[in-house]
Design a protein that fits this description.
The chain has twelve helices and two strands, in the order ααααααααβααβαα. By secondary structure, it is mainly alpha-helical.
């Protein structure tokens, strides 16, 4: 039985690619949250054997999160290739049967059996039956099936990420049969993100149907495995980690690898019905700093994918700075949050990064204005780091301030240098 979605127009194809981008982005956030939640030291009630296991699991989960970043970049290349704008925003967490089919639910969870069961469920190969974690009851109903005659894009029900991508692949073939490759792949090849810029050799530059098929095959194989061989895919890695965790807990039922984290918000998000709020002022300041940095990162990455009048040096600086911020800024602040109290509203619980999306658009279309805004934002974040560091002593906050200040200076120097060389009209 054919379980592909109906993709009969470019608009529907773009709609589904936006969904794929959101899912890749949100999976990355789920995995990073779980990785940040893991304990780091022996004095957190860990034995040496348990600490070794926790460090190994952190490498596994972080490695999968990095590949989800690659998949988001690949979905962006697919979108750009057919003439669309890369999609780097997502709904806020948790999302349960609101934007996606009822079986596709997403939430930030500390590392543990339930989180790993949830990850295994989300990454499962198409056709493989398994159950989600107990926190995710199926609510709502599937979307109505499209007729194929709609003139506007419509949401469709899918059960796995692989099914979504295979449907996108079939949609590309349908449109190529109708319009020809030159009529479908109308995006400028120069706007494609290449593996040498992002240092991902697997990243496929998409210019025709064959390259689009290679791109989709790479994403599906890394996630669910190659046609039945899933041991080294995300699904297999998470399943193996879940089995290891259960073995250690059998030997020591009190073993808990994660801190008691709670993805609480500073203020009520507009698109989430159930949420927790931070009641510790210092923790709230760090949370705002994390989300402000996350927003700046998204602005820079989207500017990169636009390729509007940016020189090769500028594009490389955007890519290097964006990826660098993930490891030198987002990661330290994310780990820091898991050590800070939520406050009196949740005694004994620590915070965690909620990856909040504040703005509806990160599009900065005008070259000179875009770079001015990026520099301005980084300078503001550097000042916020300094003010936050004064609230308490935390090495991670001081390091974040230095990173932001250095990044802002580097971007300012690059743009000023290039402006002297070329007068833009």
């Amino acid at each position: 039985m054919d379980n592909r979605l109906v993709v009969d127009s470019r608009e529907e194809l773009m709609f589904l690619l936006c969904e794929a981008s959101e899912l890749e982005h949100m999976l990355m956030c789920e995995y990073l949250f779980a990785a940040f939640s893991l304990k780091q030291r022996l004095d957190e009630d860990l034995t040496p054997e348990q600490l070794d296991a926790v460090r190994r699991w952190e490498r596994v989960v972080t490695g999968v999160a990095v590949q989800e970043m690659l998949h988001l970049a690949q979905a962006s290349n697919l979108m750009t290739a057919i003439g669309g704008l890369p999609h780097l925003r997502h709904p806020n967490f948790p999302q349960r049967a609101k934007y996606y089919p009822p079986s596709v639910q997403l939430a930030l969870m500390p590392f543990g059996e339930h989180a790993l069961q949830h990850f295994v469920y989300l990454e499962r190969p198409e056709g493989l039956e398994t159950t989600d974690a107990p926190e995710f009851d199926i609510i709502g109903t599937d979307f109505d099936s499209p007729t194929g005659t709609e003139i506007v894009p419509v949401p469709q029900s899918f059960t796995t990420v692989g099914q979504l991508y295979r449907s996108i692949e079939q949609g590309l073939r349908t449109l190529v049969a109708r319009y020809g490759e030159r009529g479908v792949f109308i995006g400028p090849p120069k706007a494609q993100a290449s593996g040498d810029v992002f240092r991902w050799p697997e990243l496929v530059v998409v210019t025709d149907l064959a390259s689009a098929e290679r791109a989709i095959e790479m994403v599906v194989e890394q996630g669910e495995g190659a046609r039945g061989s899933w041991e080294d895919a995300h699904y297999g890695r998470f399943l193996r980690t879940l089995r290891e965790l259960r073995e250690l807990k059998q030997r020591d039922p009190a073993f808990d690898p994660a801190r008691p984290v709670l993805p609480a918000y500073v203020r009520a998000p507009s698109d989430v019905e159930r949420f927790d709020l931070l009641s510790d002022q210092r923790t709230a300041a760090v949370c705002d700093l994390f989300n402000g940095s996350y927003e700046a990162l998204l602005e820079m990455l989207l500017r990169f994918f636009l390729h509007v009048r940016d020189s090769d040096d500028e594009l490389r600086e955007l890519a290097d700075t964006g990826v660098g911020m993930m490891f030198s800024l987002i990661a330290p602040l994310g780990h820091l949050l898991t050590t800070l109290p939520v406050g009196p509203s949740a005694p004994g619980r620590t915070a965690g990064p909620n990856f909040e999306i504040y703005r509806r658009s990160y599009l900065l279309p005008h070259h000179d204005a875009a770079w001015a805004i990026i520099r301005e934002k980084l300078a503001e974040l550097a000042g916020a780091c300094q003010r936050t560091a004064e609230l308490f002593t935390a090495p991670e906050v001081g390091a974040a301030h230095a990173t932001l200040a250095t990044t802002e200076q580097q971007l300012r120097a690059l743009v000023e240098s290039l402006t002297k060389q070329v007068i833009r009209v």
